[in-house]
Backbone:
């Protein structure tokens, strides 16, 4: 080996070691400023409420402020695109996403690819939904509702918190499963739907438990069914869809964290560990228990596999014609 070759090899080794040490130093110093948690949904919804509880606990763990920032619109895609394409990939900005991140690749026209432009950081939980009608509605169960629609006694409509959100998806899936027609009316967040539901201007709403449970317990709306595999101890008198003739009809609105794909692994690990520790806190566990949540695979590598499988599941439903793409 010539002297120049040896010198080149030594330079490469030296440069590699410097890079490793710099990365370790950066990880040790991270975060250098407050973290920003992008919540791509409207204020007051389940993502907003749960995200803020987790942000508070994360801040205690990393001794740095975690700032929730709402960027709603397009069923969560505006905020997701911001994190994927516009946020600086240094680990200080991350996304608190929901089920629309699984469905949008198949249902919406996107300017980004969530499966490539984002990296899974940590999974949180999946929360069931309630199908609701106004307390003044004549329907006490799914059979009565479906029968009335099929007999043309009513022109049914269902509200949602936006296109491709969980409330929209359940409505579309129930249309397919029951064989009825319902007009979809999207709103800007679930909070905006309830006045019209209570007043009878829309027929039904299927909404995640975080938002729907207080409404159901408050007596202004009536729950016809829950989307979980078994009844919830929080509402033991509300039957599942399966109990009412729709076997296998289950749905959960999941929540999890993502970051720009180019975020360094060292910074990503700090955020992941902070999230996983936050999920063990009493404040977060109490919040999840209060909405009948089921834990998701937590660590980023496990959550990534789960997420990609969920994307494929929704793509299959679209291919089968059970869901239609948005205009």
Residues:
């Amino acid at each position: 080996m010539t002297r120049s070759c040896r010198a080149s090899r030594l330079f490469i080794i030296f440069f590699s070691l410097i890079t490793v040490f710099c990365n370790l130093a950066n990880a040790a110093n991270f975060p250098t400023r407050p973290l920003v948690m992008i919540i791509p949904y409207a204020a007051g919804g389940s993502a907003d409420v749960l995200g803020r509880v987790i942000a508070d606990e994360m801040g205690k763990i990393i001794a740095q402020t975690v700032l929730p920032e709402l960027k709603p619109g397009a069923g969560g895609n505006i905020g997701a695109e911001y994190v994927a394409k516009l946020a600086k990939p240094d680990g200080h900005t991350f996304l608190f996403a929901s089920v629309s991140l699984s469905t949008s690749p198949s249902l919406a026209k996107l300017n980004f690819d969530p499966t490539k432009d984002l990296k899974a950081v940590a999974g949180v939980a999946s929360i069931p939904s309630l199908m609701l009608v106004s307390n003044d509605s004549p329907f006490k169960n799914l059979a009565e509702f479906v029968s009335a629609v099929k007999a043309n006694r009513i022109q049914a409509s269902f509200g949602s918190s936006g296109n491709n959100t969980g409330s929209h998806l359940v409505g579309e899936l129930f249309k397919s499963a029951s064989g009825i027609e319902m007009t979809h009316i999207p709103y800007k967040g679930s909070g905006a739907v309830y006045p019209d539901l209570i007043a009878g201007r829309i027929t039904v709403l299927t909404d995640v438990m975080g938002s729907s449970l207080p409404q159901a317990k408050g007596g202004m709306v009536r729950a016809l069914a829950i989307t979980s595999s078994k009844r919830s101890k929080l509402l033991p008198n509300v039957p599942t869809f399966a109990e009412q003739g729709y076997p296998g009809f289950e749905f959960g609105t999941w929540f999890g964290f993502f970051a720009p794909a180019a975020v360094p692994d060292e910074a990503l690990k700090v955020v992941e560990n902070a999230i996983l520790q936050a999920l063990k806190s009493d404040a977060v566990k109490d919040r999840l228990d209060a909405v009948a949540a089921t834990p998701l695979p937590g660590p980023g590598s496990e959550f990534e596999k789960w997420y990609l499988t969920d994307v494929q599941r929704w793509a299959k439903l679209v291919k089968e014609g059970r869901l239609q793409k948005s205009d």
Observations:
- Residues 19-25 have pLDDT under 50 and may be disordered.
